């Protein structure tokens, strides 16, 4: 696009085929900024986050605190007891952490078989949780009372993860302050399951 400065009276403007730009910024006559747009804290980690994080592992427990992991364990064990009955072995906090870590590696397009490969896999998974146990947990992993949800229709489309999501959101607010300039981007995810707010884009 070739932008040419205009001569004479319009020398402070640049024109293109569809847009017009001014070389000097417009005066802000809006007055005082609204209270909700005023940032009272410096952006970045809060005092709480700085006081609790001295190692990388502390960052994990800061955002996924024990109360959140206990909620996942509670409802996963509840669902597992329904599906597997007396043969179900209760999931513990360590296994929940392993499942989260597996999700991180799977998002890099690594298959489950590759993660547990004895040749070039990740030894941490063989030492923490077996492949069969992971697949069992994956089938019953829950974040709320799924049995109650099956008998009641909720208008909230995020009901299956609402409790965990709001708890996690509160941890994020307590740990980090956003700055005045913030960008929210989208991400395309390969997903073939049933989801009421999923949008399928064939061209992508």
Strand arrangement in the largest pleated sheet: 1-2-3
- Helical coverage, percent range: 40-55%
- Which consecutive residue ranges, at least 5 long each, have pLDDT under 50? 5-9
Tally of separate helices? 9
Task: Report the order of strands and helices.
Answer: EEEEHHHHHHHHHE
Query: Structural class per helix/strand content?
Result: mainly alpha
* Proportion of residues in extended strands: 5-15%
The largest β sheet comes out as:
3 strands, antiparallel
Report the C-alpha radius of gyration, rounded.
25 Å
Q: What is the 3D shape?
A: elongated
Give the CA-CA distance, first to last residue.
28 Å
In total, the number of strands is 5
- Average per-residue pLDDT, rounded, comes to 81
Write a structural description:
The protein is mostly helical. It has a domain at 66-171. The protein is built from nine helices and five strands. The chain has a three-stranded antiparallel β-sheet, with no helix packed on it. The radius of gyration is 25 Å and the shape is elongated. The protein starts with a strand and ends in a 27-residue tail after the last strand. The model is unreliable at 5-9 (pLDDT under 50).
């Amino acid at each position: 696009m070739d932008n040419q400065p205009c001569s004479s009276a319009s020398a402070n403007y640049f024109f293109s085929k569809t847009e017009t730009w001014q070389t000097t910024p417009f005066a802000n006559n809006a007055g005082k900024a609204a209270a909700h747009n005023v940032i009272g804290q410096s952006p970045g980690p809060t005092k709480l986050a700085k006081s609790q994080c001295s190692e990388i592992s502390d960052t994990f427990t800061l955002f996924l605190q024990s109360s959140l992991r206990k909620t996942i364990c509670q409802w996963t064990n509840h669902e597992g007891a329904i599906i597997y009955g007396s043969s179900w072995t209760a999931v513990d906090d360590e296994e929940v952490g392993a499942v989260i870590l597996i999700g991180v590696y799977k998002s890099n397009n690594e298959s489950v078989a590759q993660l547990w490969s004895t040749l070039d896999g990740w030894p941490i998974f063989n030492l923490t949780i077996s492949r069969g146990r992971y697949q069992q947990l994956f089938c019953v992993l829950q974040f709320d009372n799924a049995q109650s949800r099956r008998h009641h229709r909720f208008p909230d489309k995020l009901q299956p993860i609402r409790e965990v999501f709001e708890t996690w959101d509160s941890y994020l607010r307590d740990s980090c302050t956003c700055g005045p300039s913030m960008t929210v981007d989208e991400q395309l995810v390969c997903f073939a399951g049933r989801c009421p707010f999923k949008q399928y884009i064939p061209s992508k």
